[in-house]
Amino acid sequence: MKNRNQVFDNVLDLVGNTPLVKLNRITSDFEGDFFAKIESFNPGQSSKDRIALYIIEEAERKGILKPGDTIIETTSGNTGFSIAMVSIIKGYECILAVSSKSSADKIDMLKTMGAKVYVCPAHVSADDPRSYYEVAKRLHEERKGSVYINQYFNELNIEAHYQSTGPEIWKQTNGEITHFVACSGTGGTISGTARYLKEQNPNIKVIGVDAFGSVIKKYHETREFDDKEIYPYRIEGLGKNLIPAATDFDVIDEFVKVTDEESAHTARQIAKTEGIFAGYTSGAVMQAIKQLGEEGRFKKGDKVVVIFPDHGSRYMSKVYSEKWMNDQGFFDSVNEASTQKIEY
Ligand code: PMP
What we know:
alpha/beta; Rossmann fold; 2 domains; 35% helix; Cys_Synth/Cystath_Beta-Synth; pyridoxal phosphate; Cystathionine beta-synthase; TrpB-like_PALP; TrpB-like_PALP_sf
């Protein structure tokens, strides 16, 4: 990965080496120094560029992919965008099987990035032949030489962060990092980064952020899958209703759960206090920091690093829409004016 002060051959040279930015206000009630690794500086505006590029280049190194071959994944989110971007540059066909719940905006964005999008019915079980999992599996079997990224079950997802995010943070903090806090979806980011950091210093505390409605925290504590933990929630990219093989539970010390509502308010607060326009899960990770800070878990001299996984622009019809916040009932409890119209 290259220094930014030069001319690049293509956008893929800009993947990784994202900045670490000190947080100056939002954490002012707590002891210690706090830094955000701002993954929206990746060319695809999220941390998923790292895994898309790494997994595809691994397949190339192993001779699995040749130009014109197909890359398949089941996502309308950040990973889909990143795979589409890498596919354009490297000359692969990108097929994304997405749920019919995905917004039209997202589907349009992926098509704009050259992806072939299969929209699959949302309300069928995962093993139904029409589900996006089954459609992706079938396409993968039918197309010789295709690669199925399968981010929740792909060990290379962890490896991508072990090779890039971990070393970058270690260098950027001069090895002085004391805490690493990150949201866990596939678990790739937290697992790969933590694995690297703990190899350098086993005393670094690693804290995962999970959603109420997800099974991950309970599984970490009991190693048992408890489906009573599962119920709908709004934050995308955080938590899960299954146990991802791309999560290494042994390198994570503990999990903290956050609510949709508090995470939404905290995401908006990041913009207003730090001038950083970040996604919903950045709000979630900062909400976890607040909860830990209020428990007195940080002390003077601590260096706490959090990941801001993506950019706020992907959430204009959600957390950054006053109408959406109102519709969720999120403005009521904090006495926040929902719409301030200035009359002339
Ligand atoms: N935040 C967002 C917005 C994401 O899309 C994801 C990925 N699902 C995450 C956080 C969590 O990252 P990971 O999958 O590496 O655990």
